[in-house]
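FORM 7B - TANDEM STRUCTURE REPORT

SECTION 1: FIRST PROTEIN
SEQUENCE AND TOKENS:
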Amino acid sequence: MNARGLGSQLKDSIPVTELSASGPFESHDLLRKGFSCVKNELLPSHRLELSEKNFQLNQDKMNFSTLRNIQGLFAPLKLQMEFKAVQQVHEKLNNVTSRCQLKKKKERR
């Protein structure tokens, strides 16, 4: 070994950060990231997170149940049928307008 010693040999070598894997096949680095827990990835991290995620659905259920208690069984069913009918018409109109836009683009060429 020369007078410079082992430290200079390590300094001249490739940095360790370049040796770490990256990309879609990267392995989990326990020293930097800690242990991974599959449960935390699948379930919400906070108990209110699931409630917030389904807020609109829960709000609709509550409104339909209130409407059912006040006006009877027919009122929420009628609203749901009307909503589905409007959605179907809206989808058909979107298809027609997109077809018209495609025809106009072809005519311009």
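SECTION 2: SECOND PROTEIN
SEQUENCE AND TOKENS:
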Amino acid sequence: MSTTTYATTAHAFEPSSTSKPGLGYIIVSQPQTAKFRALGQYFCVSDLPGGSAWDLVENSLGPQICVWLGPDLVETAVYLIWPGWGVYSLGPPLNASNPSRVINLEPKGNEALINCEPPNNIALELLHINKTPCFLFIRQKEDDYAMVQEEAESLSFIRYALLAINNFLSSLEKQKQSPGDAVQASALESWYNSMLAALSEEGEEKFLFDPTLLLAGLIKHLGARIKEINGFDIAAEALLLIPMVFIRNWKEYMTGILAKSGKEVVVKSLLQSSEF
């Protein structure tokens, strides 16, 4: 009996600080270096550190936060995204005439924080998938709004999950044993390794969450579902032949649930299943 372990690697998710991110913030009661993750051309994410502002807000102590623009003064909308609570706008976008703002970081009963609908699917996915509260900075000019929304659609992590599932099935279809309609279990690991190689060529700013965790989670989910539905353990032996009908049925199931309400929770569970 042998079991393949899919080792994951950090890709886009080691937060990094930058001397000129074009924006910044500081929690007044607990000064620290802010960490940012650039996402595409228009978005930037910064997770709130655990044990500081998060705990203070949970205890209703209401820390203050100061947000400001960098030297380029590009208009920037700022949102506080708080899993379990909601998405909050920190007022009108910052711009050249209003480049900074001090605000009380207390979602409950705070008129300065405006509870709002997620402005795009990036905010929606952060709300339901991100582990901790975070700030989402959206840099835009008035004539860039359509481009911002278009980029948000292209950066959707759920969209990436669907693309990965389709790529997975397409790859395995090409590796089928002849004659027959089955694939060796080792083909799953080959696909995973080829995807890791492709990711190494991609820019980190293309991914909202760790794609390596998602890929490993998809394979683990496939194995668990085939074992549950078909009583077939794909991890039993590397040379085991897996009927392709099992994998096609899994693909149809996954594309179905990723098109329904609650799809963000599905992706979150895939990511969590691969964490060590």
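SECTION 3: OBSERVATIONS ON SECOND PROTEIN
The longest strand covers residues 76-82.
Confidence is low (pLDDT under 50) at residues 6-15.

SECTION 4: SIGNATURE
Preparer initials: ____
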